[in-house]
Design a protein that fits this description.
541 residues; six-stranded mixed beta sheet; five-stranded mixed beta sheet; single chain; alpha/beta
């Protein structure tokens, strides 16, 4: 039988060892790699309907998988004006004013990617942005995805005029007189204004998601671990696959929030494994804290404002019991845990679940973010078999080497100095998976790998933050190929170039292991293949 895809004149890079394989060509059929060999041998496998591509010496490796992203909710969230490039309030005001001037009367002003460092010493509040928001219903997402800034008119539309109590550690931030400042922390508070704002139609969300996924494929992504199933996410993925418009393989973890009762947990267990050929529900996403920048992380000692002292789950023991129930059902959890106390509690909960299960098939739990942890926590990941899911560009883009950023100032010198310990976790034996957390940070995987290697911001002239935590080129490559496959329990069918493995492939103009750290993000992606089909192809091929 003829192959579906034949790639010739290639260099084949094994991400498991970092070695170039002794072959120049590859064949795929039925979504799997079917043969590795020389050009003559593999060319003979082509038929009339085979896609044959001469790669002209380009480097083929296992497809890149983003270990943490939000493709559908991110597509909806990234509406309005992009503020991620703004570095001060003047730039924020100018960007918002330009967009506001183009809006019809009464229309909502949306923005996203706002960095709290833009506020300097001013409070993160609508008043700090200034009169550009006067009389305009505005809702602006801060970069962390855990907070929004709402204008006075938006708060009025939502009926928010003071503080409220929530089942999770959410907050309507108010001034000393009890008046809302516009800053809303965590989902339960943010959703109050979201519910009052106009929402895109399902068709608009589907079209925007398809656009985002095509752009992701063009950067070399063949897959991603999607960390929510919010709204109509699963229906959107199903519709895109039915339209043959799903270019990434997605593993989806729906949320389990505080207040989830027994029926809700049972439903999360029931939906495991549902999906299509290129997407499926696998795992559950949970939250143990919020963010350091907002003062909603869970730290073992308060931050410099006396904040970040509580868990996201008002009853942390209830979280532990839910983890135990999911573990017994064989369901892996992915828990957002940024602060040291949050990470410790997640590991304690997994350890107790493993002890109570008394054997059985291993369940590969994971912790997301892990922004600051002490020495005694680091070796526990390997001992418990818990994956460390890290986002190096969070460190690169939102913190500074001199610790003058909001994140570092809140933590203080000691805790800011143990930031994003990718290398320590790796050397302690943990499986480190790399991701972007898009739309929190940019999704191009070469940029994520570069950040893991050089620990510098977009302005490469600035010094690195914690260069001792930088990964080697091979470690960075494995963090986006081999290790995501392992944490998904798919190491026998993904993450390597081997016969029988999935034909999910990323093809680069040169060997990423030989490219300088500071040049890696600009390495051209010449071909992306998912399930044996090209999803991106450079014009010269």
């Amino acid at each position: 039988m003829a192959s579906d895809l034949v790639l010739l004149s290639a260099r084949l890079l094994d991400p498991g060892t970092g070695a170039l394989l002794p072959y120049t060509a590859l064949a795929a059929g039925g979504g799997r790699i079917t043969r590795l060999g020389d050009d003559r041998e593999i060319r003979s496998l082509a038929g009339a309907a085979t896609t044959v591509i001469d790669l002209k010496g380009a480097v083929v490796t296992a497809g890149f998988t983003d270990g943490h992203l939000h493709p559908v909710s991110g597509a909806e969230r990234t509406r309005g004006v992009d503020l991620s490039g703004c570095r001060d309030l003047a730039a924020v005001r100018a960007a918002l004013a330009e967009r506001a001037a183009a809006l019809p009367a009464g229309a909502w002003l949306r923005g996203w990617g706002l960095d709290p460092n833009c506020f300097g010493d001013a409070p993160v509040a609508a008043a700090s942005v200034g009169p550009v928001l006067d009389g305009v219903p505005a809702l602006i997402d801060l970069f962390d995805g855990h907070s929004v800034l709402a204008s006075a008119r938006a708060l009025e539309h939502a009926g928010i005029d003071g503080p409220r109590r929530f089942e999770q550690a959410a907050e309507i931030v108010c001034d000393g007189a009890g008046r809302p400042t516009g800053l809303l922390l965590e989902d339960a508070a943010c959703e109050l204004v979201e519910a009052a704002a106009p929402r895109p139609t399902e068709a608009e969300v589907r079209a925007r998601t398809a656009e985002v996924l095509r752009e992701m494929a063009a950067t070399g992504l063949t897959g991603g671990h999607a960390m929510d199933a919010n709204g109509a996410s699963l229906a959107v993925l199903a519709a895109l696959e039915a339209e043959d418009a799903l270019p990434l393989r997605l593993r989806v973890a729906p949320w389990c929030q505080p207040g989830a009762d027994a029926d809700a947990v049972a439903e999360l267990i029931r939906v495991q494994g549902t999906g299509g050929r290129l997407w499926r529900v696998a795992g559950v996403k949970m939250f143990m804290d919020g963010t350091i920048d907002n003062g909603t992380a869970w730290l073992e000692r308060p931050d410099c404002h006396g904040e970040s002292t509580h868990a996201f789950w008002p009853d942390p023991d209830r979280y532990r019991r839910v983890v135990g129930e999911l573990h017994r059902a064989g369901v892996p959890t992915a828990t957002h845990a940024i602060g040291d106390a949050a990470v410790r509690h997640v590991l304690d909960s997994v350890e107790k679940a493993q002890a109570q299960a008394r054997g059985g098939a291993p369940v590969r739990h994971r912790v997301e973010h892990i922004e600051t942890v002490p020495d005694d926590t680091v070796p526990r990941f390997a001992r418990l078999g818990v994956t460390a899911s890290m986002q190096p560009t969070h460190c690169c883009e939102y913190t500074r080497a001199d610790h003058t950023d909001n994140w570092s100032r809140r933590l203080g010198e000691e805790r800011a100095s143990r930031a994003f310990r990718c290398r320590d976790l790796w050397e302690a034996g943990a499986r480190v998976v790399l991701g972007s957390d898009w739309p929190i940070a940019p999704y191009p995987p070469l940029g994520v790998m570069a950040g893991a290697r050089h620990r510098r911001p977009g302005d490469l002239s600035r010094p690195p933050h914690g260069p001792e935590q930088a990964l080697t080129p091979l470690q960075a490559l494995q963090g986006i190929t081999v290790n995501p496959a392992w944490t998904a329990g798919e190491e026998r069918e993904a993450g390597r170039l081997a016969v029988g493995h999935r034909a999910d492939l990323t093809v680069l103009a040169d060997n990423p292991l030989d490219v300088a750290d500071t040049g890696l993000a600009d390495l051209p992606v010449v071909l992306t293949v998912t399930d044996g089909r090209p999803t991106h192809r450079a014009a010269h091929l």
